[in-house]
Amino acid sequence: MKVEVKSKKGLKTILSVIVDKKNIQSKMEERLNELQKEVALKGFRPGKVPPAVIKSQFGKSIYGEVVDKILRETSSKAIAEKKLKIAGQPKIDLKQFGEGKDLNYELQIDCLPNVNLKSFDKFKATSFKVKVEDKIIDEKLKEIANQNKQFEEKNEKAMNGDQVTFDYSATIDGNKFDGSEGKGIQIELGKDLFLKGFDEKLMGAKKDEMKQIYAVLPPNHPKKELANKKTKFECKILNVKKPKTRKIDDDFAKLMGAKDIKDLKTLIEKQISSQYSQALNSITKKEILDQIEKNHQVDLPQNLIDQEILIMTQNLKTEEKEKYKSKNEKLAKSRIKLGLLLNEYGEKNNLKVSDEEVKTEIQKQIKGMPGQEKMVVDYYQKNPSASQSLKGSLYEEKILNLIKSKINLSSQEVSTKEAEKIIANFNKPNIDTEESKTTSPTKIKPKSKKISKK
Predict the structure, then answer these.
(1) Which of 125, 213, 300, 416 could be disulfide-bonded to 233 (CB atoms 3.0-4.6 Å)?
(2) pLDDT band at 127 (very low <50, low <70, confident <90, very high)
(3) CB of 3 closer than 8 Å to CB of 82
């Protein structure tokens, strides 16, 4: 194989590649010998079809298959030989091919730019630590207690806030339907979670009473023929219970999975603090990324910008794409530029994310979603790209954490009210841009094995 740089202009490089016809012929013979074991033709025993016969019948398709394989292999070798970092998919322009001829083609490549990183020592940013007030924790405790309230039986009429348990038999125009029977249905009056207006008609019901209720089935009923149908419910009231004041003590804390009430308060504080921290960390991140972008000049491959715009606008209507064309291009350039800069910093500092770290992060997610563990596991098992995306996020987090350790990072403790004000100001819409303030830069991969033929 002979490789020459035919032209180099900016980030675009064209390589001329020539593969000797003897090499191609050798590959053809190898493939014909492989096919001899597989091909079955009338008049020949299995595995005994002469290569010449196979070639006479399937020569063109076999040649095409062999050339495709050679193109993939030699283009990758050519890029490696010239030590090029490619951006996106190179294009192949065939100049000469055919049996008995050398294979001559051009490889048109968009290269990643050389990135010269400046020192981050003079960068400044603020990290925030949220102090959750006791009042907020107590309010959250009451909310949890209210969500997990207890009920005790009463012999009086049902009123708002009571829990009513009943069996029902329903008909539409005197006819039964799928789902027209229900046993042991429990509803808390006032929440209106069963059917619209149903709770109100159960007000005043008593234990062992028969109650006739008319209600309309929802417009989004799974069976379209039943949507918006007026339905008659014959309800047998099994019991009526009133809410019981839930004592917030160690026993309640244990019921919630904590050791005691002090431990439960600590868990609530961590949860609330974490929710604020996620938003505040995005602000710190944006502050750092803005400085990195502002202080570096990088030539950007146009094909990566075009790809990014395509991804960003794939769900937009044509008129919306046109309206925000310049703004979307600006955002795409920002993402590509930051992706290149962060990747360069990660590579220079030999940062990597192991498969074990990805597994650990997935386990954290599983623990953080009690009762939905199987759903999380299934999601990652059925979506290999999700694990790769998670790996990219962890890699970016490692890079940013290292940058934070190098810059002048001041720490500020804020109350929840102050945190809300900071977040609200940060999220105020900016009429000059459609940019999302917390958008991560695009992850750029230095190498791509995909090659497209022109």
Answers:
(1) 213
(2) very high
(3) yes
Tell me how many degrees the CA angle 236-241-247 measures, rounded to the nearest 5. Answer: 160
Return the closest-CA partner of residue 394 out of 368, 422, 421, 362: 362
What is the phi/psi pair of residue 8, to 5°? -145, 115
Confirm if 188 and 161 have CB atoms less than 8 A apart. Answer: yes
**What is the structure's pLDDT at 228?**
94
Contacts of residue 365, defined as CB under 8 A and 6 or more positions apart, other chains included, come to 376
Q: Is the pLDDT reported for residue 435 higher than 60?
A: no
Domain boundaries, the chain: 2-110, 124-132+256-453, 149-244
The structure tokens listed for 35 are 């096919």
State yes or no: pLDDT of 217 exceeds 90: yes
Give the C-alpha separation, 308 to 317, whole Å: 17
Q: Is 295 helix (H, G, I), strand (E, B) or coil?
A: coil
C-alpha to C-alpha distance for 420 and 401, rounded to whole angstroms: 24
Q: Which residues lie below 8 Å from residue 367, measured CB to CB, with a gap of 6+?
A: none
Q: What is the CATH class of 2-110? A: alpha beta
Average pLDDT over residues 256-281: 91
Rounded to whole angstroms, what are the CA distances from 210 to 31, 100, 236, 239? 82, 93, 5, 12
Return the CATH fold of 124-132+256-453.
Trigger factor, domain 2 (1.10.3120)
Buried/exposed code over 47-68 (b: 16+ C-beta within 10 A; e: otherwise)? eebebeebbeeeeeebbeebbe
Paired residues of 363 in beta bridges: none
Question: Residue 44: is its pLDDT beyond 60?
Answer: yes
3-state secondary structure of 262: helix
Q: Is the pLDDT of residue 52 over 60?
A: yes
Q: Residue 453: name the closest of 183, 4, 64, 80 by CA.
A: 64
For domain 149-244, the CATH architecture is Roll (3.10)
pLDDT at 434 (0 to 100): 42
**Residue whose pair of structure tokens reads 């999220």 in the numeric block:** 427
The SS3 of residue 61 is helix
Residue 102 has a pLDDT of 93
Q: How far is CA 374 from the centre of its chain?
A: 18
Average pLDDT over residues 401-411: 94
Tokens of 123: 């960068």
Of all helices (H) and strands (E), which one includes residue 131? strand 124-131
What's the Cα-to-Cα distance from 25 to each of 34, 401, 424, rounded to whole Å? Answer: 14, 54, 69
